[in-house]
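Weekly modeling sync, notes
Attendees: AB, CL, MP (scribe)

Item 1: holo prediction request
CL wants a bound-state model with NAP before deciding which constructs to order. AB pointed out that an apo prediction alone won't tell us much about the pocket. Agreed to run with the ligand included and paste results into these notes for async review.

Input as submitted:
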Amino acid sequence: MTIKLAVTGASGFVGRQLLAVAARERLEVIGIVRSEKSAAGISRFGARASVVPRLEAEPLAAALAGAQAVVHLAMIGREREGRTYEAVNVQGTRAVVEAARRAGVPRVVLFSGLGVAHYGMTRRCTNPYFLSKLAAEVELFRSGREAVVFRPSYIVGPGDGLVTRILAEMASGEVLRVGDGRYRMHPAFVGDAAAAALAAAQDPPPGVAPPPRVLDLVGPEPVSFQSFLERTAAAARAQGRKANFRIREVSVEEADRAAAAGGFRGMGTDELDCLICDEVSDAAPLSHFLHRPLTPLDDAIAAAVREAPTKAASV
Ligand SMILES: NC(=O)c1ccc[n+]([C@@H]2O[C@H](COP(=O)([O-])OP(=O)(O)OC[C@H]3O[C@@H](n4cnc5c(N)ncnc54)[C@H](OP(=O)(O)O)[C@@H]3O)[C@@H](O)[C@H]2O)c1
């Protein structure tokens, strides 16, 4: 059975991948975006774009008409230019689930964050970003919609911000590393993220309610940040890029101060928390859910490097 699927945040990193996978499976998809420019950007994926400038229930309900599931990706990881977690992540999710109710869409798939389950338990998971993701989950669970929540670690693949930034730093000859780099991450491949979202939207068919389901969206292996750097450099060299660089260690305190003062290497305080929060999980439930092994980390990194701007990596 094929379903009609709606995607908020369709123009983003995960959204674009989701549209590409859905197109291959010949699913009918409505990509919900904020602007005509974003609408034009997703047209090449064969999705019908619906422009909804703000996450409000009434226009969203119109955009969701006829859909059997909505994948809600449109959230922010940093507050700036007047956009707050409360307005976008929490009230935005409330509007999406209310719109789903009004439009009769049975299922909502939400992307939250790895570490939400440790809110209040570890310092780096106890910040306004994780709180807003937790609140967004609660909005969904209370809505009466069929709920599937994914909690991603870093998502890696073509167009991802982390590998692109690391390659740009390598190209400059110096990579900044916060602390000793031994904190771990548990990166998932963006293709696995898209496949998981599509599977959650379709199986069991909407209307045949799954139990409320929460899955950590992680890859097959946890990795320290230092090892992630080394493996990114190895992938860059294997693809003929120059990656001669030195690592400059910045203390955690210094990085915290810079992030609070406006940004550390483009990261705000909550984004820095996400980098060094040392959150990892068990990959088996996601692999079981997808009925297949997860994409190896080196393949995910290689795919990200392949698509990253070459200019950034030529030293
Ligand atoms: N990527 C990761 O490593 C990662 C890790 C953990 C969790 N997640 C979660 O996974 C989801 C998808 O991530 P992503 O990497 O694809 O994010 P992304 O590339 O930043 O895309 C986010 C999308 O949300 C839209 N958006 C932002 N603010 C909005 C607003 N106020 N109203 C409506 N739309 C808005 C953006 O639209 P415009 O194009 O118009 O700006 C964009 O399409 C997010 O919920 C994110 O928090 C991602």
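Recorded for review: The chain has a mean pLDDT of 95.
Action items: CL to compare against the apo run; MP to circulate these notes.
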